[in-house]
UniProtKB/TrEMBL annotation:
<dbReference type="GO" id="GO:0005886">
    <property type="term" value="C:plasma membrane"/>
</dbReference>
<feature type="domain" description="UPAR/Ly6">
    <location>
        <begin position="20"/>
        <end position="101"/>
    </location>
</feature>
<dbReference type="InterPro" id="IPR046354">
    <property type="entry name" value="SPACA4/Bouncer"/>
</dbReference>
<dbReference type="Pfam" id="PF00021">
    <property type="entry name" value="UPAR_LY6"/>
</dbReference>
<keyword id="KW-1003">Cell membrane</keyword>
<keyword id="KW-0732">Signal</keyword>
<keyword id="KW-0472">Membrane</keyword>
<dbReference type="GO" id="GO:0098552">
    <property type="term" value="C:side of membrane"/>
</dbReference>
<keyword id="KW-1015">Disulfide bond</keyword>
<keyword id="KW-0449">Lipoprotein</keyword>
<dbReference type="InterPro" id="IPR016054">
    <property type="entry name" value="LY6_UPA_recep-like"/>
</dbReference>
<keyword id="KW-0325">Glycoprotein</keyword>
<dbReference type="GO" id="GO:0035036">
    <property type="term" value="P:sperm-egg recognition"/>
</dbReference>
<dbReference type="InterPro" id="IPR045860">
    <property type="entry name" value="Snake_toxin-like_sf"/>
</dbReference>
<protein>
    <recommendedName>
        <fullName>UPAR/Ly6 domain-containing protein</fullName>
    </recommendedName>
</protein>
<comment type="similarity">
    <text>Belongs to the SPACA4/bouncer family.</text>
</comment>
<feature type="signal peptide">
    <location>
        <begin position="1"/>
        <end position="20"/>
    </location>
</feature>
């Protein structure tokens, strides 16, 4: 009888234990360079991996981001900041770990910021 109880407890544990989804992360990707990348285990409510791209109407830099997200938040959006329109496009996936594309190799933060500064200054005609 004792053995049967332990067997039932072990089976119950197998069904209750669910491994969290793992997603690639990139906090900010500018000019194809990921400033902070890695892999993260999603929370129980975050059931999707995503890749997001923010595009600005003034031909400014596109900003990319990767991580975990809830299904209900996997929507595209538009808006405006200081009279510059933007569109955020999110692509979501689920069912397998790291399904949101490979992480871009990390480059020097100084080089990326210098390149971003050059692009911004050239947009303003400075």
């Amino acid at each position: 009888m004792n053995r049967l109880l332990w067997s039932c407890a072990a089976l119950f544990t197998l069904f209750v234990t669910v491994e969290a989804l793992s997603c690639n992360t990139c906090a900010v990707d500018i000019l194809g360079s990921c400033l902070i990348n890695g892999v993260v285990n999603c929370t129980n409510t975050q059931d999707r991996c995503y890749t997001a791209v923010a595009r600005f109407s003034a031909d400014l830099l596109d900003i990319h981001e990767r991580g975990c997200i809830e299904q209900s938040k996997c929507i595209n959006s538009t808006g405006s900041i200081l009279n510059v329109n933007y569109k955020i496009t999110k692509t979501c996936c689920s069912g397998s770990n790291l399904c949101n594309a490979a992480v871009v190799p990390q480059r020097s933060l100084t080089a990326v910021l210098a390149a971003a500064l050059v692009v911004v200054l050239s947009q303003w005609g400075l």
